[in-house]
Design a protein that fits this description.
Elements (H helix, E strand, L loop, with lengths): L1 E4 L14 E4 L2 E7 L2 E2 L4 E2 L4 H18 L7 E8 L5 H11 L6 E6 L9 E8 L5
Parallel strand pairs: 6-7
Antiparallel strand pairs: 1-2, 2-3, 3-8, 4-5, 6-8
């Protein structure tokens, strides 16, 4: 049985997908790009500002699913320029504590709305039995 996760604290879906889908204690998070939830506009600023907004959006979806961003077990980071890898590491360290999730960093040619970063992942929500 799956539960659809939705929150106004993260950008609404701009296509045929949900912000996240929960099956048992596993949550599959759709890709987040650096949109400001209230305006649905791309955050102004450089790559660091975009990455920061993406992690804020992911945090909001994780919270709505009953966990927190540190409950993520797998993260996929898509970037249009892999030279930004060190910046992602720096910003990610503000949101995650050890042990860190498994992760992939993938260089891509293009992302929605011409942004520089998108992140999706999988979260395991602590059971409350």
């Amino acid at each position: 049985m799956k539960t659809i996760i939705s929150t106004d604290d993260a950008p609404s879906a701009i296509g045929t997908y949900s912000q996240a889908v929960k099956v048992s204690t596993t949550v599959y998070l759709s890709g987040q790009i650096p949109l400001i939830p209230e305006t649905m506009e791309v955050v102004e600023g450089d790559f660091a500002a975009q990455a920061e907004q993406v992690f804020k959006n992911l945090s909001a979806v994780c919270d709505a699913a009953g966990g927190c961003i540190n409950d993520m077990v797998k993260v996929n980071i898509f970037m249009t320029d892999l030279a930004n890898f060190a910046t992602v590491n720096e910003i990610m360290s503000k949101y995650f504590k050890e042990p860190y999730p498994a992760r992939a960093a993938i260089g891509v040619n293009q992302l929605p709305k011409a942004v520089d970063i998108e992140i999706d992942g999988i979260m395991e929500v602590p059971s409350v039995n």
